[in-house]
């Protein structure tokens, strides 16, 4: 494999000391491992996804923002995303810290003082298991979007759950956001690609208009005070979590990846 010069420039890497090789697999894109030797003579690894088309560009833009939103709150929970864009060959790309999941067998993530090999250094564990990290993520208020006076439900960019784009326009009400930007938005996408089923449309519409407000309306949550927006992964299941070392530093941690984040609850 050959690394596109535009990606080398974006990451400020020396082509003479940088290589790229196929790594892992994905149902939506090509995946690779970038290895470089820094001026300090330290070997550094990065993970890269690439795919053609505007849909991939939108997907990677959403994943870039999602990873960094999670990483900013709990750095040991996921890799940071370093760059996204379109390379000189026209393919969209995403480059993140390398998540070394092969190290998981050599260290226990439940130990508060476990170590992983990074050269000759022993690194400290964060002291948090997955549940604690998620609890921290889900109790930290989301940032205030530009132009607003308080946190909003939504997200700055479109994100993709699998290959499905999710609109994330801001809304101050969690029930309204969930009904409009999730249930009804996904219904519209289904109808655009499949035949319209009037019975199904009626059921989803009634759920959005009647059930969601009764369950998620502000008057029903937190003693009538409603809930605050926090960062959530958005696509968290057993296939999007694991154990590994992030960026070649620290101990083996319980981690998540492939997020489709939103400021929700």
List the helices and strands and how they pair.
Layout: H1 5-11, E1 18-22, E2 30-37, E3 43-52, H2 54-73, E4 81-86, E5 91-97, E6 99-100, E7 117-118, E8 121-122, H3 130-137, E9 159-161, E10 164-166, H4 174-193, H5 198-216, E11 230-232, E12 241-246, E13 253-256, E14 262-264
Antiparallel strand pairs: 1-2, 2-3, 3-5, 4-5, 6-12, 7-8, 9-10, 11-14, 12-13
Helix pairs in contact: 4-5
Labels describing this entry:
globular; 5-stranded antiparallel beta sheet; 5 helices; 265 residues; 3-stranded antiparallel beta sheet; single chain; alpha+beta
Task: Explain what you see.
- The protein is 28% helix and 24% strand.
- The chain is an alpha+beta fold.
- Helix 4 (174-193) runs antiparallel to helix 5 (198-216).
- The chain is globular and about 60 Å long.
Give a nutshell description of this structure:
The chain is α+β, with helices and mostly antiparallel strands and 265 residues long. Helices cover 28% and strands 24% of the residues. The chain starts with a helix and ends with a strand.
